[in-house]
Amino acid sequence: MTLKERKTGPSMEGSSAYRIRVRGHFHESSSRSLGGMKVVEYRGSGDHVETILQGQLADQAALAGVLNALYELHFPIISAEYLGENPSPMKDLANTAP
């Protein structure tokens, strides 16, 4: 892999920032298994609730760990977005409402 290829997307090694959107209410006690990602919840009409997790993860193994934790907690994943290796500044969670 060339340096140019690595800058255009995620790699298997090195930290990167991600935003993961899931359906459902997220309890603070569950956040320990999420690698320090920030958690913001949005309530829509009726019972519709989505939670957005965003943060820097050490590598792809950490991302897999977070996705697996969400699966084990029974959260349907709506999307997972790569934000870059060193986003500066990290995109504001307040502007990511569904």
What are the defining features of this structure?
single chain, 98 residues
Model description:
By secondary structure, the protein is α+β, with helices and mostly antiparallel strands. The chain has one domain: Alpha-Beta Plaits, CATH 3.30.70. The chain contains 2 helices and 4 strands. It has helices at 3-7, 60-72; strands spanning 16-23, 38-43, 49-57, 77-84. Strands 2-3-1-4 form a 4-stranded antiparallel β-sheet, covered by helices on one side. The radius of gyration is 14 Å and the shape is globular. The mean pLDDT is 80.
Principal-axes geometry comes out as globular
Radius of gyration: 14 Å
The total of helices stands at: 2
CATH class: Alpha Beta
- SSE class: alpha+beta
**Roughly what fraction of the amino acids lie in strands?**
25-35%
Element-level helix/strand string:
HEEEHE
Low-confidence stretches: none
Question: Overall pLDDT, averaged?
Answer: 80
Number of strands: 4
For the record, give the distance between the C-alpha atoms at the N and C termini, rounded to a whole number. Answer: 35 Å
Give the tally of structural domains: 1
Helical content stands at: 10-25%
Strand order of the largest sheet: 2-3-1-4
CATH fold label? Alpha-Beta Plaits
Query: Which CATH architecture?
Result: 2-Layer Sandwich
Topology readout:
Blueprint: H1 3-7, E1 16-23, E2 38-43, E3 49-57, H2 60-72, E4 77-84
Antiparallel strand pairs: 1-3, 1-4, 2-3
Entry summary:
Helix content is 18%, strand content 32%. It has 98 residues and is of the alpha+beta class.
